[in-house]
Amino acid sequence: MLPKIKTNEKKCCKIHPEITFKMNFDGCSKNNPGLAGAGYTICDETKELYFGHFFVGENATNNHAEYAGLILGLEQAIEFGIKRMIVEGDSLLVINQMTGQYKCKSPNLIELYEKAKKLEKQFEEIYFNHILRNENKRADELSNIAVDEYLKFKSARELKETISVF
Fold it and tell me: Which helix (H) or strand (E) holds 14?
């Protein structure tokens, strides 16, 4: 007779065959703190369904931008009626805070963390996974687009103001 094998379900890798939506998020900050942008994508098993980007601010940290990307993506997923989702990001800090492995102690991030946790509660099932930066290229691209578009708009506005002076 073989001995009974004990398993620890908490340590077992979970497989999510019923979850068909995946969200990737990212944030960037030039000079940290500096010009910051956030981006997200929401995909099903075959293609990108939704994406978005947002200019976070002129003096924001990278962690602030990362949370902004997460929050923006969660809000859009809720708006689209998604109830089950896997969330992936390359920010180990944000992922570990969302999973409870790290505590959020930074006064600059607590409000963002609490907002993300409140949004998390609106899902029936949600999982957070850390991925490497090279696996998060589209969300990274979108966060940088947000900053680039802001700079183009700002340059155009400054040019218009200069021309109207004459």
Answer: none
- Supply the pTM of this predicted model: 0.85
Look up the CATH superfamily of 16-165.
Ribonuclease H-like superfamily/Ribonuclease H (3.30.420.10)
The closest of 73, 38, 41 to 53, measured between CA atoms, is: 38
Triad 123, 114, 79: Cα angle to 5°: 35
Render each residue's pLDDT in the chain as its tens digit; 166 residues.
Answer: 555 544 344 444 455 557 899 999 999 999 999 999 999 999 998 999 999 999 999 999 999 999 999 999 999 999 999 999 999 999 999 999 999 999 999 999 999 999 999 999 999 999 999 999 999 999 999 999 999 999 999 887 776 665 544 4
d(CA 166, CA 54): 34
What sign results for the dihedral spanned by CA atoms 100, 94, 50, 56?
positive
